[in-house]
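Problem 3 from the worked examples.
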Amino acid sequence: MDASGWDDRYRSTDLLWGSGPNVWLAAEAEGLPPGRAMDLACGEGRNAIWLAEQGWRSTGVDFSAVALDKARAMAAERGVSVEWIRADLATYEPPESAFDLVVLAYLHLPREVLAAVLGRAATALAPGGSLLVIGHDLANLTEGVGGPQDPSVLYTKDDVTGWMGSLEIAKAERVARPVAGHGPDGGGVALDVLVRGVKPAP
């Protein structure tokens, strides 16, 4: 889906993903000292805003103008300052060695494109910084609920660690995330990839 398609999707509802942070981001960031953070494919900004509330100097990047307008409004409502950048991650080059945390949450692109995005994200890390990748696991297609139904844009933890280059892998797991509104009893489980790589100190 291109930027105009995502604009239409974000326009169609109040908050597409809700206002609270992703559960895996909240858990992983809890033990990290706040520094400078960047959320790639930030959407309506829930993760970037939450990081700002935790004391991070936060930047959100997305190619949907509608999503970023909603992100600005939510940040203002919650009284935090976030830098918002409109850019297509297929070509966006973040500043090198600038961030203590880079987040990619549920960014699903063709594998060669995603590998290049991860490579640039790793370059954006300062020494000791973490690259956190969260996404729908390939197994979610047959064993979980929700998420993309195209296997060509899904991946595994081994795929992600292979795209992280020289980063040291601090965590690489398939994790189960409860999802409301699915299944006969109103609940279900999504299978996610959770990988955190750390840039070695020189």
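Problem 4, a separate protein:
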Amino acid sequence: MKSTTMRFNGQLLNRGFWLYCWKVSDGKREVLYVGRTGDSSSKNAASPFSRFFRHLDTRESAKGNTLHHQLKRAGMEPSECSYLLSAYGPVFKEAEDSVYVGFRDRMAALEKELAYALRDYEVIGNHQSKKRLEKTDEATLKGALAAIKKDLSLV
């Protein structure tokens, strides 16, 4: 048996539209995983903490455990990895149905561009959104990229 710890900032409990990036290492390899809250399968923008839990759910019936599957696909055993997380947001507050889809689409474009901006590192996952980055979101992308690089010691 071993002891282990987890520390997090309570801001991660706030619902809304966030960008995030995990830096995951199994001791031999280090990968990045870029994601967002406010996905297409729901009309609710979850908190980053809630989303992170679902990402690593190992139950056979689990839905939304994309990071778990991507790590396995990359030949990494999730239970043997260390994780460092940076979340940026909320970019938008949780929204009513009438504006949710617009925010969701803008976040999809931001997620895709963030993954592309980190292409000098090994980024796992699919970031194939057809949504285009809006000119008004360029500053958000720049801020997220700078914060995430700093938080994950990528600079």
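Solution to problem 4. The chain has a mean pLDDT of 92. The first strand starts at residue 17 and ends at 25.
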